[in-house]
Amino acid sequence: MIQNLLQTPIEYLKGVGPNRAEVLKKELNIRSYRDLINFFPNRYIDKTGFYKINQLQQNTSEVQIVGKIVHMKMVEQKRGKRLVADFVDDTGRMELIWFRGHKWIKENLKINTPYVIFGKTSYYNGLFSMPHPEMELVSDYKKNLRTAMQPVYPSTEMLQKKGITNRVIMKLMQEVLQQTGLKFSESLSPALLSEIKLISKAEALFNIHFPKNQELLAKAQFRLKFEELFFIQLQLLRKNMLHKQKIKGFNFEQIGEHFNDFYQNHLPFELTNAQKRVIKEIRSDMGSGAQMNRLLQGDVGSGKTIVALMSMLIALDNNFQACLMAPTEILSIQHYNGLKELCEEIDISIYLLTGSTKTSKRREIHEKLESGEIDILIGTHALLEDKVKFKNLGLAVIDEQHRFGVAQRARLWKKNHIPPHVLVMTATPIPRTLAMSLYGDLDISVIDELPPGRKPIKTVHRFDSNRLKVFAFIREEINKGRQVYVVYPLIQESEKMDYKDLMDGYESIAREFPDFQISIVHGQMKPADKDYEMDRFVRGETQIMVATTVIEVGVNVPNASMMIIESAERFGLSQLHQLRGRVGRGAEQSFCILMTGHKLSNDSKTRLETMTATNDGFEIAEVDLKLRGPGDLMGTQQSGVLNLKIADIVKDNSILQLARNYASEILKEDPNLSRDENQVIKNAYARLVKNKTIWNYIS
Ligand code: ADP
Ligand code: MG
């Protein structure tokens, strides 16, 4: 059977053998016939068309031309000789050049005889040339069978070194396709195929390697991309469905005293409509009887904290505990202080647990958690330790999700027999479609509205040479009573150097502003010192905060209205946006100044221009996605999406939508894929899961 044949170890393929098999495994992770067939070209050399010499352009890459050599000569160079041939067609003249193999060429190439040549052209002094062209007599060209579009496969240095060239891979591919024939099992149902007009699996696989023409190549690519995205979406949606069916959640039926009292008497401001909508979504999730698994996206400053608090109050009203986990100590402390203040007049007990909580306090917390005396526990990763046991945890809120891995999310669950509801909050705006494919198993809420009265932050780019003017501006703002952040990059590989930059910067600011108080915070400080310095700034005792990116996440000082970002070209876009979100939190006009040197890469320029042009986190995320691709954007935790074999989550957005719609439609009608017409899909799905070709990147 074809399935067995596809499992055949790659060393048994004619032309492979144990040595090459070893290299293929190591370099390309190709172990079986199936793996080889699923190793797709990343581009094609199009030999379907011919160029005339007068059609050549400086940026044309590989071209095919028919013409004749009219003359050949040797040219002496400092570094050896080259052989140059004048090549003409009826539109013009160009040169063919050889640096090696002169003797053979002179003896074998025919003058004044029509050739098909193929290769890359270069342009110099008004003349096109082609070094080391592939050449074939027109008379032979007409005789030979060929595929017009030649596949070019991804390669590595090691593959080249071991002689596994593109030509070799092509040969192997021909061999494996011949052996397996065109007998691949179809993986999509006939209904789908005809409705979306997809070509068959076998045809697609053949044409992805050896396309007969552009049109068939496009069809093959579309079919395979659709299939890949379809099965991923199918998996995610099924998971979400099963989750809702099977994973019972606590049913928070009542909205009680805590929530109502807070809502009616202690809300410090009117909620935005977006906040109200999101709270409603969360309320209905937690009252549905299934476990909530919701991602809350909201730009920096959109007011996620109050949403978290009110959700936790619902848990309390149903006699459950809640916790709020944040990625850094500073942020946990801020949440703790902030929530304490908000809840001052309602009778609940809130505790803080971090890595630096003293042992005695820690013990007290452990006991009070188990006895149920603690209502809300706030903290860092320390919450995940085994000793931390809740009496009845009903809701876990995780702030700034992108810093926590999926595994950590899951660990919170283990704290109960019935898992608590989970609300994950992130300020990294993820474009919706990307979020869909990354977190297809989560429901998504979005706060897409900032609290009223916020003025957009004015952002400018200044060169280091204008520093004096920037200093003058800092002085002006501080004299108006404002506070200022000065941020330095700290990137791990060069930590020592960055640390020196930071200290130098601190000193020059101290010299420039002897009359102001200055705080400094960086990652190498002891937590207690950090807190002390932060605290002075929060209380307004210091006017300037010199810091590394430790202040990136969540820090809230409304009176700070200005941020200087040093070496701004070294930060990524989403990081710049996060940093900038620290200002613009009060009523005053805020400013962000991006400082750089004069030498800037194109990407850096795009980043700086984007930052000065917009405050919209989603817009910024889209640009970031285009610049960096999804893998970098999300960090390595979610790099599963990078394992896509053919689809590109960014570029193939519309196919993704289509695939998701179809997957969802099919599951709605036939959740277990038990109907006859869905057997093909069910079998393919089972095979994919078994062969682990859909990547289990979500839990
Ligand atoms: P983030 O979403 O970045 O976590 P926060 O929850 O820290 O944002 O809120 C940012 C600031 O906006 C806080 O000072 C908060 O008190 C304030 N805020 C939140 N919601 C509103 C609102 N509806 N009206 C006015 N201010 C609000
Ligand atoms: Mg926050």
Automatic annotation (TrEMBL):
GO biological process, one term: DNA recombination
GO function term, MF aspect, one: 3'-5' DNA helicase activity
Electron transport among keywords: no
Record's keyword annotation contains Nucleotide-binding: yes
CDD domains: DEXHc_RecG, RecG_wedge_OBF
Record key words, sorted: ATP-binding, DNA damage, DNA recombination, DNA repair, DNA-binding, Helicase, Hydrolase, Isomerase, Nucleotide-binding
Residues annotated as domain Helicase C-terminal: 466-631
Enzyme Commission numbers on file: 5.6.2.4
Superkingdom of origin organism: Bacteria
Gene3D superfamilies: Nucleic acid-binding proteins, P-loop containing nucleotide triphosphate hydrolases
Entry-linked PANTHER family: ATP-DEPENDENT DNA HELICASE HOMOLOG RECG, CHLOROPLASTIC
Name of the protein in its database record: ATP-dependent DNA helicase RecG
UniProt lineage: Bacteria, Pseudomonadati, Bacteroidota, Flavobacteriia, Flavobacteriales
Gene: recG
